[in-house]
Amino acid sequence: MYKVKVGIVGLGNVGCHVLYTLALQGIGDEFVLVDLNESKAAAERQDVFDSAEFLPHRVKISLGSFEDLGDCDVIVNAVGKITLLIGNSDRVAELKFNIPAVRSYAKKIAESGFKGYIVNISNPCDVITNELIRLIPLPKGHIFGTGTGLDTARLKAHVADKCNIDPKSINGYMIGEHGSSQMTPWSTFNINGMPLDELVKTDPRFDIDRANAELAGREGGWVTFSGKHHTDFAIALTAARCVKAIVFDEKMVIPASCKLEGEYGETGVCAGVPAVIGANGVEKIIELPLTDTEKEKFHLCCDHIRENIRIAAEIKE
Predict the structure, then answer these.
(1) Are strands 252-261 and 194-195 parallel, antiparallel or unpaired?
(2) CA-to-CA distance for 312 and 127, rounded, in angstroms?
(3) pLDDT, one tens digit for every residue, the chain (317 residues)
C-alpha cells in the first residue's frame, strides 16, 4: 500500500498545527519535520507522537534536514516570523525575514531531488509563492499558496452567521492579494446556485452589509492576532485541506495563490483565484465572470502584489 509522506518546513504555531491537523485527519502516513530550532521541532513531534493511540491510523514522524525532503509527496512551507505590531495589518512587514529565509533553503529542496508539490503558507503568501516558483524548478501547478483560501472561509463564516445558513452552502470568494487589497466579486456570489442579488428580493435575511462582510474576510485574522499574537487553527486547516485535495485527487475548487499566465488578463504574478486542486496540484484556474468594476479592482490587487515582489527583489540575503 502506498504511503503518503509530507514534509513540514517551519514548526512554529502554524507548522505544528498543520502537523497535528494532517495526522488527526489521517491525511499523511509519514512526516518529516524541518526547523532550525531542533528542540522546538522535537517537542512538537513528541506531542503528536504521544497522541498516537487517538489518531485514525499509525503515523511515522521524524526530524530531518532539507536533504530528507527529496522523497516527500508534499511539502508545506510554514516558515515565518511575526514581526507585526498589533493594529498593523500589513503582511509585507514579514518580507524582511521570510524572503531571505526562503532563499536560504529553496536550493537545498531542489537539490534534494524533490519532485512533489509545495503548499505555501508563509506571508506575504503571494510574494513567497512567487519566490518559491522562481527558485525551485517544478512543473506548472506544483507550487501554490493558500492565498485567499482562508480569507474566503472567513467571508463565508460571516455571511453564514448573518444569514443563518451553513457556510458550505455558500459559493463566493475573496480573490486577489492575501492582504489589504483583496476583494470580493459580489456579482458571482450565490447560495446553492441562487445569486445573492436575487435572494435579497424575496428574503430580507440575505440583505447583508456587504462592505462589513468583505471587511470580515479581509481583516478577520487580525481579531485573532490581536488577542493571541498569532493565528494557527484556521490557516492550518486551510493548508491541510489543500494537501488532502492533492493526496486524494479531489478536484476541489478552492481559492489558492496561483501563477497567472493570461488568466484574468494578468501574467507573471501569483494571486488568489479559484482553482481546481487535484493529484497534479493546480490543475485549472477558474476564471470568474467579473464585472468591469471587479476586473479593475482585481488588476489593482495584482499591481499591489507586483510592487511587493519588486520590494522582495531588492532585499539582500
Answers:
(1) unpaired
(2) 8
(3) 789 999 999 999 999 999 999 999 999 999 999 999 999 999 999 999 999 999 999 999 999 999 999 999 999 999 987 654 444 555 567 888 899 999 999 999 999 999 999 999 999 999 999 999 999 999 999 999 999 999 999 999 999 999 999 999 999 999 999 999 999 999 999 999 999 999 999 999 999 999 999 999 998 888 887 888 778 899 999 999 999 999 999 999 999 999 999 999 999 999 999 999 999 999 999 999 999 999 999 999 999 999 999 999 999 86
Residue with cell 440575505: 206
Which of 164, 235, 176 lies closest to 204, judged by CA?
Answer: 164
User: How far is 232 from 230, CA to CA, in rounded Å?
Assistant: 7
What's the burial of 94, exposed, middle or buried (CB within 10 Å: 0-12/13-18/19+)? buried
Cβ atoms of 155 and 211 within 8 Å: the answer is no
- Beta bridge partner(s), residue 39: none
Catalytic residues: 178
